[in-house]
Structures are given as structure tokens and as C-alpha cells.
Design brief:
The protein is of the alpha/beta class. It is built from twelve helices and 20 strands. The chain is about 35% helix and about 20% strand. The chain has an eight-stranded mixed sheet, sandwiched between helices. The longest helix has about 35 residues. It comes from Candidatus Hakubella thermalkaliphila.
Length: about 475
């Protein structure tokens, strides 16, 4: 289970340490980048760490820690410290400098810490210039007319010094930046490690748009030493290598259906379907990858992964047989009848139980507080993923056909895969390609395995 928690938030240990430091002496608020991260941290902190949490609207009895998103910051009344476990975009960082707390802490990495300091300091220095007498006079004139003069301000807010304290392991550094306004803001970044949540300079925790799926690159040269016998299949616009018994998806334009054939059974004029340039890859997998990375699905997949790992590790830890597992569940009131059903949970053949109470019962059996407390949320997550899988399976063939028969279905782009996630066929148009076979080599030749099953454009020079 520990691995599942870290997979959801690699900064988890640092976050727990910061919360425990503040628990007894300061009023702490944790601000999450999005609802998915917030939900995941609620699960982790309450179930695994036993930390007291509360909703922002609940009465503050001095015990619970509120977890909010950046959108809820304007409703924040007061706090000693605001802690940000995730990274934020430029605009959000500027926004939170107005939060009602004398101390702001970030869990950030080296270059991210540099940007935070530069942006916060620059923001307040800009305020200093804009609030100066000359700028005020210019603004007043523009708004009130040349004949108007701004009222005198007799009370000065005084200078402001922003103190940046950076802690990296045992190394602590400080610097002060002069700005304006009275409140003092402190930013403390507890540690630096290789970046995990920035991809191409963009924050993946709060990212709302995913990159278009791209063909994967060949593996490292060290893996290209594995040689397998493969046929060379020529297409009108390229070629591929495939092992004789490998299965390839063939599009049947006349009937607008798909079929699977062995590579050595292909014929000239056959249309072969590739997904992301890979014959072995299925569009179903490509769609599910996109869905799993979708911000709206973040907490759903976290809960599903937690259940799957919890039941697998708990079963292994107790050393029971499937029959023993079944009997224990029956003693707790389960209506499960067969051990194979239990096995399907453990090995992952099915997402989870049909009876949601079995999630709670498994939690009781394994003494897993997360399953006991979150069984309803986990069941909702399982139902959502199960329904999405069924929907995708029904639409898969049509998606392949409509994406492959370019021009024959001009309205194909409007084919909705999932309305709630705003996924349409057109999102995967570039992922699916269809190539017509012109010839197949009569004999197989040794080829690096990493080159098999992949489409290469005509003229591509492969070396091994």
C-alpha cells in the first residue's frame, strides 16, 4: 500500500513530516493543486497516518487540518501557515501571495524553488512601484480627470521584507527582498530531488490538456541485441518487421469490419491497422492511457489502484489460500460463493467486487483503515472505470473503422467516446493509421526485437 501512496504523490513523506511539525503548535492549511490530489491526500493522511482532517466549512476545534484547492483560498479566514505540496502555475503563485497567513511553505524542487522566489519577489516589487506616488497620481488622473487630485495618504504602510528560507537536507539558506506592504511572507522548500511532476516545463499535477499520443521511440541500444526471426512486410508508404506468428489487425473496407491475421497469412492489398505506429498496440490501450491521465479521472484511478494493491498485498501477507480467504469473508457476512471469484480480485482479472460491502470486509480482514473508511468511494471509482471499459469495448471496432477509412465518414470526428471526459474520435485520429500491403518477404531474417511490430516510413534506414 505504501507504494500506491507514493505513486500518487512522491512528495508524500515530506508532506507528512511538515504536517506533524505544525500539528501541535500552528494553525495549518494544506492547499492542493486540484481535486484529484486533494482526494488522494485525504485518503492517505487519514487512513494511513491517522492525521485529523476537516472540511473548510466545518467548525474549527483546533484539531483538524483543512485540505483545500487554490480556488478555495479566498474563503480562507486565517492560518499561521499555508502549505503547498504541489507545484502551481505562474498565475496561481501570484494569487496565493495574498493569502491570510504570515508563513507560506512549498514542497518544491531546485529549479522550481528558484522560480517561486523570482516570481513572488517580482510580484511584490511590482506592487511597490505601482503603489508609489507617481503611479497613483497617473491612475487618479486617468480615472478622475485632469482637474482631480488624489487624496493625501498620511498613514504609511511601511516597508516589507520578504524572507525566503530554503532548506535542502541539512543545508539552510536565507535571503531577504525589500517590497511593500506590512505582512511578512515566508517560503520554505524542504528538499530538492530530481523533478517528477514537470514534463516539458509544464506542471503535470495541474495540467488540464494532455499531449497528443505519439509513437514510442525504440528502446535503448542495449536491448536491441535481442534478435528474432521476422518477415519484412512492405506497404505502399513504408514497411515493418513482424514475427511470423504475430497477430495483426486487418481492416476490411468492403464490410467495414476488422479481423486478426497472422503476419505470415497477410496478402497484398490487405490493409493493416497500426496504433501509434505499433502493430502490437491496441486502440483500447491508447484510449485508457489518455483516460487515466485525464485530470477528472485522477482520484478515480488512485482509488482503484489502492484497492487492487491492498487486496493483493494483504492476501500475500497473511499467506492464506483462496478458499481460506473466501471463508473469512463469509464469516464477515459476504455472499461470495466461489474461490475463483476471490482469485480474480487478487490477480486483477476483474476490477473489484460487485458487492461494495466486500471492500469494507476485506479492509476489516486485512486491518486496512483506508478500505474500511473509503469503501463507498472506492466502489464508486470501480463502477465508473467498469462502465467506461464496457463503453469503450462496444465502440472500439467503430472507432478503428471510422479513423481508418479517412474521408468515407466525414462526421467521424463527432463520434463521442466519453462525453463526461470530453473524449472524441478526432482526439485519436492521428493515433490510428492504415497501411496497404504490397509484398511480404518469403523468408524470415534475424531482426532486433525492438524493431518488430512497428511501422517505418519508406526510406527509413534501420541499423543494427
Amino acid at each position: 500500500m505504501y507504494d500506491a501512496l507514493l505513486a500518487g504523490n512522491p512528495k508524500y513523506e515530506g508532506l507528512v513530516q511538515q504536517i506533524r511539525e505544525h500539528l501541535q503548535k500552528k494553525k495549518l492549511v494544506v492547499v492542493c493543486p486540484n481535486q484529484a490530489t486533494r482526494r488522494m491526500l485525504q485518503l492517505c493522511l487519514r487512513a494511513r497516518e491517522g492525521l485529523p482532517l476537516r472540511e473548510l466549512e466545518e467548525t474549527d476545534n483546533g484539531q483538524g487540518i483543512p485540505l483545500i484547492t487554490y480556488r478555495e483560498i479566498p474563503t480562507l479566514e486565517a492560518a499561521d501557515t499555508i502549505l503547498f505540496p504541489g507545484q502551481f502555475s505562474y498565475g496561481r503563485r501570484q494569487f496565493i501571495t495574498t493569502a491570510a497567513a504570515p508563513e507560506i511553505r512549498y514542497l518544491a524542487y531546485g529549479d522550481e524553488a528558484d522560480r517561486i522566489e523570482q516570481q513572488v519577489a517580482g510580484f511584490h516589487q511590482a506592487i511597490t512601484r505601482m503603489a508609489g506616488p507617481n503611479k497613483r497620481r497617473q491612475a487618479w488622473t486617468a480615472l478622475g480627470g485632469a482637474g482631480e487630485t488624489p487624496p493625501d495618504i498620511t498613514v504609511s504602510q511601511g516597508p516589507l521584507t520578504i524572507e525566503f528560507t530554503r532548506s535542502e537536507g541539512e543545508k539552510v539558506s536565507r535571503r531577504a527582498v525589500a517590497a511593500a506592504r506590512e505582512p511578512d511572507l515566508s517560503l520554505w522548500t524542504p528538499f530538492s530531488t530530481p523533478e517528477y511532476d514537470v514534463e516539458g516545463g509544464r506542471d503535470t499535477l495541474s495540467m488540464e490538456i494532455e499531449e497528443t499520443l505519439r509513437p514510442s521511440e525504440p528502446d535503448a541500444p542495449s536491448r536491441q541485441d535481442v534478435m528474432v526471426p521476422a518477415l519484412r512486410i512492405e506497404f505502399t508508404d513504408g514497411f515493418c518487421y513482424a514475427e511470423s506468428d504475430s497477430r495483426m489487425t486487418v481492416l476490411l473496407p468492403s464490410s467495414e469490419k476488422t479481423d486478426e491475421r497472422r503476419a505470415d497469412g497477410l496478402q497484398p492489398e490487405d490493409d493493416v491497422v497500426f496504433v501509434d505506429g505499433d502493430q502490437r498496440r491496441q486502440l483500447y490501450e491508447a484510449i485508457l492511457e489518455r483516460v487515466e491521465r485525464h485530470p477528472a479521472m485522477g482520484v478515480t484511478y488512485i482509488l482503484v489502484r489502492y484497492w487492487q494493491q491492498a487486496v493483493r498485498e494483504g492476501f500475500t501477507r497473511l499467506g492464506m489460500s483462496y478458499d481460506e480467504f473466501l471463508e473469512k469473508l463469509k464469516e464477515l457476512g459476504s455472499a461470495m460463493r466461489t474461490a475463483p471469484g476471490i482469485r480474480n480480485w487478487v490477480v486483477g482479472n476483474v476490477l473489484g467486487p460487485d458487492d461494495a460491502q466486500n471492500i469494507r470486509r476485506v479492509g476489516v480482514l486485512f486491518n486496512d483503515e483506508a478500505l474500511i473508511q473509503e469503501w463507498k468511494e472506492i466502489d464508486r471509482a470501480l463502477q465508473r472505470i467498469r462502465g467506461l471499459h464496457i463503453s469503450l469495448a462496444r465502440k472500439l471496432n467503430r472507432v478503428i473503422i471510422q479513423a481508418g477509412l479517412t474521408g468515407r465518414h466525414p462526421d467521424a470526428a463527432e463520434e463521442c467516446i466519453d462525453e463526461e471526459l470530453n473524449l472524441y474520435l478526432d482526439d485519436f485520429r492521428d493515433s490510428v493509421t492504415v497501411h496497404r500491403v504490397t509484398s511480404i518477404s518469403p523468408e524470415a531474417t534475424p531482426v532486433p526485437y525492438v524493431f518488430t511490430g512497428r511501422f517505418f516510413e519508406k526510406g527509413k534506414d534501420l541499423k543494427w
